[in-house]
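forwarding from the other thread:

> can someone predict this with pyridoxal-5'-phosphate?

sure thing
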Amino acid sequence: MSEKQKYTPGVMKYIEEAKKFLIQREEHIARIKKLKFDTIAVHGLYTAEEALNQNQGAVIEPLYLSTAQAYRDSDEMEAALAHLIPTWCYTRFANPTTYYLEWVLGLLEGYKTGYDTSCVVTASGMAAIMLAVDSFLVKQNQGPERINFVSSIQIYGGTFQHFSVRKMKERGIEVRWVHDQEDIEEWKAKIDENTRFLFSEAPSNPQQAFCDVKTVSDLAHSWEIPFIIDSTCATPALMRPIAYGADIVIHSLTKSITSGGLAMGGALISRKPIITKIKNDNPLFKESFAEYIKFFPYRDNGPAASPMNALFALNDLRTLRSKMDFLSQNSQKVAEFLSQHPRVYQVDYLGLPTFPLHALAKRYMKLVDSDDGKGNEIYRYGHLLSFRVDGPPQNARKAFDNFKIILRAGDLGRIKSIATIPAISTHLQQGEEAREKADVPPQMIRLCVGAEDPHDIIADLDQALCSL
Ligand SMILES: *Cc1c(COP(=O)(O)O)cnc(C)c1O
């Protein structure tokens, strides 16, 4: 059945018009792909031409707060709602401002990976995680099925809750925890034919756990299942897991990507195609997973990002590469100071050569488009670290309470230095046993180093620790 037989000439006219637009967009994207990371981050898809011809010359992408799109006539409406032409239709389905953010994130995450990508932006990081995993947790047979998935236990507290309560307790889906995600044998031992995907977070919040991204991807693919990785703490400026075989990358845009701290958001970016053995009638499921999510589960479940938040993220990420470089350098100085401090018995930071996972992280964490003068990329490890204060847990609380510049909040990824005690905040709900397994003791302070002068942050830490 051809489109011609099914649709009126009026609808066909719109389809032809859309084809021309899509060819032009493809050519435009091919040109963008030749640009460097920073240039893509600054401009994304928005051109001077578009500014002048469509947006009164506005140099910044326009903010479309409208909930819905109007159509010229019934033919255009039919073509749009049958997905025959690009359309945004309704802000729960898509939005022109969010569109710019989706494209730029897809391009940055796919940068120099050798793969095309697609991206869907969501209201929060948790929404992106839910959308990523749910599509693989569907029944495949009539009879009883014991579905499982394998995940590192060293993950964000909210993700741990989502997996252990929403999936395991409420839906009876077995979550098989990997305790040492750098140990490939442990991953291997947990997989069977009912495993739907592997999930990891690297570097993990707060422990700085890390996995061998390539080996875990290869293992997943040998079972014909995808590897999903939450790479919020790295951002595409420091690591692009798709280059090593990861199928789906998750970001909480709320964190370093929108470091200004004014917006919530999440992103799901998929490689084209992904590896999965799940049967799905829609070819997009495999070929362009993020687009599939956007057209269907996202539309039906309603986790759309607000366009305003999308614009905040878009505006903050223009300088992502230089920001992650700078914040990583500040963190390195702070971590080195803390590791020498008599009141501190352990510092977990991937950038410290003494940290057990340093060598593994060094294979993956590099500042994109950097050069050390010898043709190698420069190593950078992000701005999240944690340290453990000597003595009973009250000591950690006392030092924490004495911070003068560093803010006490359950937040991270900020341009401002922020600290928390995970055991009484982000990881409170897990309970003591799970915290012990995940190595989150009450002596641990998580610190996300901001863009202040590092000397001032070091002085603040020193006075707080010396108050003990
Ligand atoms: C914060 C965070 C999330 C959740 O993101 P929200 O935007 O808060 O929903 C997921 N993963 C990691 C690593 C995070 O730090």
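The chain has a mean pLDDT of 96. thats all i got for now
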